[in-house]
What we know:
The complex is a heterodimer of chains A (752) and B (572). Chain A is α+β, with helices and mostly antiparallel strands and 752 residues long. Chain A is built from 17 helices and 33 strands. Chain A is elongated. Chain B is 62% helix and 13% strand. The longest helix of chain B is centred in the middle third of the chain and has 49 residues, at 171-219.
Amino acid sequence: xxxxxxxxADSPEARLRLRNRSRETPRRRLVAxxxxxxxxSAGGIAIIASILGILIFILIEVAPMTFPxxxxxxxxxxxxxxxRIGALLADEHRTHVASLDAGGVVRVVxxxxxxxxxxxxxxxxxxxxxxxxxxxxxxxxATGDGRVxxxxxxxxxxxxxxxxxxxxxxxxPVFLELDPQHRPLSAFAAQIDDEGAATAAxxxxxxxxxxxxxxxEKNEMTGESSESLSRAEIAVPxxxxxxxxxxxxxxxxxxxxxxxxxxxxxxxxxxxxxxxxNAGAPVTALNLLLGGxxxxxxxxxxxxxxxxxxxxxxxxxxxxxxxEFPRQPAAVRVIAPSQRDKSFLAASGNHxxxxxxxxxxxxxxxxxxxxxxxxxxxSPKADGAFMAGTGxxxxxxxxxxxxxxxxxxxxxKSLFGKVWYEGYNEPQYVWQSSxxxxxxxPKLSLVPLMAGTLKGTxxxxxxxxxxxxxxxxxxxxxxxxxxxxxxxxxxxxxxxLPSVVxxxxxxxxxxxxxxxxxxxxxxxxxxxxxxxxxTGYLWNALPRAFRGRFPVGTEVLLFVVTLAGGIWLCVALSxxxxxxxxxxxxQSWLLRSTGLGFDQRNAxxxxxxMGFAVIPIIFAIAEDAFSNVPxxxxxxxxxxxxxxxxxVTKVVFxxxxxxxxxxxxxxxxxxxxxxxxxxxxxxxxxxxxxNPFNGFRTLSANIAVEIPEAPQGxxxxxxxxxxxxLLFVITFIINTVAELVRQRLRERYSQL
Amino acid sequence: xxxxxxxxxGALAGxxxxxxxxxxxxxxxxxxxxxALTWLCGGALAFNLLLVIAILTLLAVNxxxxxxxxxxxxxxxxxxxxxxxxxxxxxxxxxxKATATQGPEAAIDRIRMKIGNRDVSGLDxxxxxxxxxxxxxxxxxVVMLERLExxxxxxxxAELRRxxxxxxxGPEAVWxxxxxxxxxxxxxxxxxxxxxxxGIGDVNYEIERLRLAExxxxxxxxxxxxxxxxxxxxxxxxxxRQAAYDKLASRLTALRERxxxxxxxxRTADGQTKEMAVGTVLQALRPNAMGTLSKLRVYxxxxxxxxxxxxxxxxxxxxxxxxxxxxVMMVFLMSFAVAPLGVLAALYLxxxxxxxxxxxxxxxxxxxxxxxPSIVFGMFGLGFFVYxxxxxxxxxxxxxxxxxxTFGTGGILWAALTLALLTVxxxxxxxxxxxxxxPxxxxxxxxxxxxxxxxxIRRVVxxxxxxxxxxxxxxxxxxxxxxxxxxxxxxxxxLAPALPLDGKxxxxxxxxxxxxxxxxxxxxxxxxxxxxxxxxxxxxTALLLIVVVTLMNLVAISLRNHxxxxxxxxxx
Lengths: 752, 572
C-alpha cells in the first residue's frame, strides 16, 4: 500500500494530501463496513426469523381445523312441469340433478344452464311417498296401489376430449308388491344393493307392517340371475311415521307418533325380535348415517339426536340416544346424511342445520334456501347439497348449496375428551386413525398418545433423576478434579449416543432378556444399593494409610466393579427368586395376582433405554449447578462445624436446587420428544394403562408412524401437525422456564 | 480444593463431636449416615459409568464378532439326526414354557445354532436342547459357502458339474477344482455387474431422459411443424437407444448363460444334496481347517466388504456402503447449509445487534430450539420443504414427470435442509460462545489501529473464534449423523437404487432418496423378515455409527477444551 504513495509524496501538497488521507478511513472501506453491517444484520434477522417461522408454519397447517363450515347458495333452478318434488339425487361432480315428483316423473336437469336433459314417462300414477334410501343412488317411492318402486339413478361419465359428459343411466324401476289388496301405503322404506337385490317395508292400510325381499341368485354357469321374492307381515305397536332400512338390508328402523323407536333385525324378509326405545316426542324424520349403524332421529318438538345399538350389561343390544343436538325451532322434517363422513343436514321448518354426529357438533345453521322444503340430498363428495321446495321460481325449485366442511370430526372435545364412537359401549379415548374399511370413522383422540408420552417420560425419569442428580452431586462435591477431567467426556459421549442405537439395543437385546429376567430387575433394586454400601464399608475399613494414597472418589471405580458383580448376582439369583416369590413364573404370577398383562416391549424397557438417554442431560446441567455454588458458602458451612455431607445436603443442595429443577425440566423435555427409542422399544399400541409391563404409543412416535401415510391437507395430517405443535409448545415452554431459572440462578450466584 | 476441604471437614467433624451437636442429631450417627448416603451417590455415578461401559462393550463385542469366522460344529443328536453349523449362543438354564412332556420344572441348557441352508431347511437358526446332543465334532472337510442368495450354506462338497458332465467328485477333488474355477466365475460376475450397472444402466437412463423430453414436448405450445420435427429427432434417438439396449441385453443373456454353466453339488449334514451355480458362491471356506491367521485375513476382508459393498437380499446381507455414503453426503450437504447460516446469525446476535431484552429473548428462543423434538423438525420438513417447496418446484420445472414427483417427495436435499434447521441452534450457540470468548482488548486493539468494525471482525474476531465455530460445526455434524426420526419422513429409503452422486449429469442428484446408517439400523433390525439372522449385521452397523459419532464428539470436546485453555491463559 505504501510504495507508490511514497514516491508521490515528494511535493509538499502531496504530503499534505497524504496526511489528510491517512487520518480518515478510505471511503471504500467505510462502504464495505456499512454493507457488511447491513448484510449481517439482515441475514441474521432473516435466519432467526425463519427458525422461528417453523412455529408459524405449523400453526398455519393446524389452523384450517378450526375454521367453521361454510355453506353458500350457488344457484336455484326451476324444474318446469314438476309437481311436488319428493326426492333428489345428483352426480359426483354436481353437474346434474335428478328429481322425482309426486306425478311419478324423473327429471334430470343440467345445472350449468338449468336445461332439462332427460325426463322419464310417469313410473306410476300417483306417488304417496318418495325417498332416497340411505347411502344409495336410487329413488324409492310408495305408489297409491300398494307397491313400492325402486329406481336406480346412476350417472355415467364419459370424456369427449377434455370435456366431461354426464349422462343419466335409465334403467327400468323395480316394483315390489307389498299389499296384495292394492291399498295405498303409508310410511315405507326401501333399499337396493349394487346387484339389484332389494327390500321394501311399508305400513299397510290396516296398520300392519309388510316386508318384501327380492333376492337374486346368480347362476354361475350361465351368468343369468333368477329372482325370488319373499314376504312377511307382522303387527306394529303404534302409528309409524317414518321408516328406514340399512344399506345391508338387515335392519329395519321405524319411528312412531308415540315417540317410540322400533328396531327389527331382518332375516330375508322376516323381521326378528322387535326392540323398542322411547324417544319422547313424536318421530318426524329418520335416516341412517354413513356406515348404516347410526340412526339420526328428528322429532316433532324439534329434538334432533343420533341413536345406535349399544351392548347392555346383560349382553343384549338396545338402541340408545348417544348424541344429542340443540333443539331445532320446529319439527324436523328431512334428514340427509353425508356419504363421506358422519355429518348430516337436517331441515326443520325454514331452518337448516349441518351437524356432525360423532363430535356432537353443530357445524352450521341458517335459513333454508327454499320454503316448504320437501326433499334434500347431500352430494356424494360431501361438497354440496340440493333441496327442493318453493323458491324464487315458485314451486318445484331446486336450490344448490356449496358446503366447505373439510374437518368436521375435529373439535377440542373429540381431541381431548371422551367420545362415544359407533360400536362402543361407552364414551372412550381412542386413537385409531385408519381402519380396514372406508366406513370406519377415524378416531382421533390425542389423550391415549399424551398418556403414553407421560408414561414413557415417567418411567425414564424414574431412572434418570436419581442417577443423574446424585451422580452429579457426587462428581462435583466428593470427587477429585483429576477424575472429573476424565469423567466429563464420558458423560458427553453418553449424551451423544444416537437414539436409534439405544432403541435398537433396547428393542432387540434388552427386551427379550428383561422378559426372561424381571425378577432379577426387582432383585437389583435391593441388591445393588446393598452392594454399594458393602463396598463402601469395606473400603472404609481399609487402613487409612492405604486409602490416603488414592485421590478422593477412587471408591467409585471400585463400585463400578462390584456393581457389575451385583448385576451378575441378580441374574444368577433370578431363577431362584422367581421360584420363591412368584411361584416359578413371573408373567403368569403377574396376570394371576394383578390381572396385568406382559408385553415383551414395555414401559420398563423404554424407561431403561430412554433413562439412559436422559441421564447425561440431567447430569451435565445438575453438575454445573452444583459446581457453581460459591465456595465461600461451602467454606462457611464447614467452618461452622458441619461435616461434608451436612454441607452438601443443607447448603449446597438447597442453593443449587433451582439448577437441579431446570436440569430435570430439560431432561423431561428430551424424554417427551424422544422418538426412535420409543418407536423401537415399545409395541406402539395406543392404549391407556399405567402397567409398567405394557407398551404404549407416544405423540412423537405416532407422528413418525402415521405422517408418511397421511394425505397432505387431510384431517389426519393436520391432527398430526397439532400433535407436533403440542410437542413444540410443551418442550419450548419447559426449556424456556428452565433456561430462565438457570439465568436467575447464575445472577444469584454472582451476588453471593 | 475438594481434597483440602475434605480433610478440613474431617477435622471439623472431629471437633463437632467433642463440643456437642451442632446440627441436632448425635454426631456419630450423622457421620455414619452421611458416609452411607455419600456412597450411594457414588454408586449412582458408578452405575452411570457402568452403563456406558456396558453399552460400548456390548456393541463392540457383538459388532466385532460378526466378522469372525467361527468353527463349524457337527452335532450328532440322540434321535440320529445330524446338525452342522456355527454355535452362536449357549443359554444356560433356559426357562421353557411348561409342556406336558417335560413338566413345569423345565430348566435346560439350550444351544442356538446357525445352520444356514435356508433353501433346504427353511430356517437359519435352530434351538437345540443340550441334553439331546450325543456327540459333537469339528470335521475338517466341511465347507461354508457365502452365497449371493439364500444366505450361507454349510455342508460338504460332493460334485462339480458342467452341463451334465461331472468335472470332479469327492470332497477333496472338488475343493481343489473349485478354487480356480471360482476365481474365474467371480471375474465373470464382475463383468456382468459392470454391464448391468454401466452399459445397460446408462442406456436406460438415456431412454428415460428421452421419454421425459418427449412428454415435455407434449406440454409445450409449439407450431405443429416444429413439434413433429423435434419429435422425429427424439424418436430416432429413442430407437437407437432401444437397439443398443437390445444388443446389450442379449450380450448379458449370453454372459449369464456362461456364468451359470458350472454347478456345484453340496451335501448337507443329514445327507440331502443341493445343486447350485458356482457363480452364486461368493466365498467358500473350510473354517475348521483354517488357522488363526487365515481367519484374520477373512475377518479383514469382511470388514472391507461391509464398508465397500452394496447390500444384498433386502439389506440382510452384503455391505452397507450406500448407507455410509448417504450419511456422509447428507451430513456434508447439511454443513454447507448450516455453516454460513449459523455463523451469520451468531455474528449478528453477538456483534451487531443491540444487546437488550429482545436479543436476550431471541437467544433463549434459539437455545431452546435445540430442545424441540427432532420429529417436529421432520414434520416441518415434510410440510414445508417437501410438499410446499418441492411441490412448487415440480409444477414449475418438472411438469413432464408429474404426477410422479421429482422434488415433491423426500430427497437428500430436503433431508439436509431439515437437519440444517435442526442443528443450526447448536452452531449459533457454539459460535456465539466462541465470539464472546474473544477478549475485548483484542478487538479494541484492532479498532485502535484504524480497522473498521467489519475488518476487525473478519481479520481478528472470526479467526480467533474459529475453533469455537468449528466445535459447533462438528457437534452439529455428529448430531446430524445420528439423527433418524426426522429423516424417516423426509427422504430416507430402505434401499436406494442409485447414489445421489454419480457420473451422469448433473452429477449431484439432490432430489434422490438415500440410505442412512441410522435408518438402516432401524429398518434391518425391525422391519426385516428375518430379524434373528440380521441382528449381528445391525450390531456391526451400530458400532460403525457409534464410532463415527463418538470420534466426531471427541474431536469437538478436545477442540473446545483447547480453546478454553487458550483463552483462560490470554484473557487478562
